[in-house]
Amino acid sequence: MTSIWRNLRSGLIGAGALTLAAAMPASAEKTITAVMHSGLRVMDPVITTAHITRDNAFMIFDTLVALDADFNVQPQMASFEVSEDGLSYTFTLRDGLKWHDGGEVTPADCIASIKRWMVRDGGGQMINDRLESLEATGDKSFVLKLKEPFPYTLEAMAKPSGLALFMMPERIASTPADTAITEMIGSGPFKFVADEFQPGVKVVYVKNEEYVPASGPRSWFSGAKEVLVDRVEWVTMPDAQTSLNALINDEIDFMEAMPVDLLPLIDGMENVESKVLSPLGGVTIGRMNFLHPPFDNKKIRQAALMALSQQDVLTAMMGNPDYFKVCGAIFGCDTPFEFTDGSDTLTSGGDPEGAKKLLEEAGYDGTPVVLMQPTDVGSLTAQPIVAAQALRAAGFEVDMQPMDWQTLVTRRASQAKPSEGGWNMFFTNWIVPEVSNPLANIMLNGRGDKAWFGWPSDPDMEALLAEFAAAPDMDSQKAVAEKLQAHAMDNVSYIHLGQYFNPSAWSTKLSGIEPAPFPVFWGIDKAE
Amino acid sequence: MPIYLARRVLAAIPVMLVVAVFVFLLLRLTPGDPAAILAGDMATPEQLERIRATLGLNDPILVQFVRWIGALLQGDFGTSLISSTPVIDLVADRMWPTIWIALITITLSVIVAVPMGVVAAWKQGSWVDHLVMTFSVLGFSIPVFVIGYLLIKVFAIDLRWLPVQGYKAPSQDLAGFASRAVLPALTLASIYIALIARMTRASLLDVLNEDYVRTARAKGLTETRVLFRHALRNAAVPVMTVIGTGFALLISGVVVTESVYNIPGLGRLTVDSIFARDYPVIQALILLTSGIYVLVNLLIDLSYSLLDPRIRY
Question: CA A307, CA A392: separation in Å to the nearest integer?
């Protein structure tokens, strides 16, 4: 009996020890636990422009070329050479590039990735429209040839947002562009752990030990992507207060979106730091429907613009003036194309009297403005309320209709009359790199039915965009960009309502966090 | 009894079928477009149209329904339109946290609330009764998120005894599971304790004046035996109903508590799927919830005959 008990006891102790050993991570393993702005559900970075999908892709996939903090295109997976006539782009892959399943990165993989991206991305489509050929020229090199010069080519391939161009193995990149891929095999600094992925709940990455970082200093998405931790976990928390509590309690290390109104809670705390990481921040905008009255009338659109004040909108949206900037530049302040033509009333508090006068001149007949208000997206609830008040003060009839964001995005695709399920105006936000270049700024598209929601037919705008696309150097691009700014404000392509900055918060155990338009996890270390 | 059981199980089939048709139609009539979520803010109308076609959302509703119900009859709940993950895997992943929290909450509630209700009824009008009733009113009245944040403030932030949030599977980390389950279970239990204690008290007050209770006392039985063996058993039928429906409610999702404690349960999955108009996931979740309600009601009905021998099926 005693020996049975002894065996049982030692067995239990052994099992317990094994369980403990299995449950405890290796002591040397460094894990960063981060709460991002949203849960990851869609994984294909070519099918969606969702920011969380892009962020996930930057962990797993690498890019051919990348943008640095000065908006310059830098080599990343490949060096590049542009022919003197601006028609040939030769890319040469650097040594040591491997997919996470062990295969070598080849020109065929890159060509397939570029072709899939060109189907979906606006910039990619512009390249495709001018494409002569895209062919491998060796084991490590391939050439993209154009029929006519298109100076935006490299910038389109390097842009980090919208649909960024990520390299994937040929077998994955051969998937039709409208079918979502789910296999996350890249060549980037982190490997995706498929077994631990829970859509909308948790994403796990481990360090890619085989990754050979590019040379050069780290700057935004270019330079050396050196991974200093073993593992990164993204956990989704629907409640910001819970995320902050978890950060204070050392249960998580990083919180991407820290609500400004919660900042006082961490004042003076030694274990938590908070800062704005994105130097450019985001812009908030109002978009009108050009197809239906009253905004099919340019003067009435101008009256609406005149009625609005960036200061009022941003104050309601962010509260704390440290986290917003009144800025009249539709391409964003502190960007290469910062011009402010036509934005005087927006940046100086609005002009309701001027708007009233303009409305009278335009013969506004009291047609109600159907203004869609999303009630479930915190960063978009204030704008419609402030705008409705300003428009009413200027003499508009406003029919503000609250709805969830999903209903809004469905309804904004409808070209029906506002009284029959259509709309007149909605608001949305972009990060500045999504609007900072005229060719990437989708709201400037003036191709009628083929344009973005609102469907402006604006041949003058299209002509200016074509002029910009052909502009050979920065000086000539700037000259066209200024004309674009003036035209967009005059025609009221959209109402630019200013720039805002969301702070992030993190544990002081983390070091190496640097500014970038969105968080990256290379170059960050964690103290024991 | 077996015939009754078979009849009830068979009766559940048309119920589930009606739910399936209703949910399918209701979702298609609700404004919303999963393709728009999938494609993101920059998608052009043309791109949206192509994605809709790929997902089969442009097919006539009847074709979509037949396709879905056909797959369902073969045990295939479909694939999430948003994450491309099999629905059955998504639901299975999210079901366990909810089931565990529900079981702990209900167990805790019954252990605490039934004796509270019995004592309150036994000492009707005394300070104990008033205390129980006050607690009951508070339990009903204070929103769960307030209780949740207060418990987090005290036990997680100030005292640092327990984690703020999260979920660990008991099979992977039993201690981690237990420490993370305490606060959400306590939060949810505050409502159920109030509800069950109140119901126990009311039911018991009804039977305490019955002749058989007087007889039991006259026989010289101890007060504990009178209360728990004779009175409570007869008062238990309505209490069982409350416990059963309470359990079903907990399983079908407690979104606020799951959000406050970051528990990846069915409630959050339901809300996320509704916001994303992820039709296959919502349909599966509602069918699952309906099935649970049917099952729980059946178990409640069966428990009546165990508690009260006069009830026969």
Answer: 9
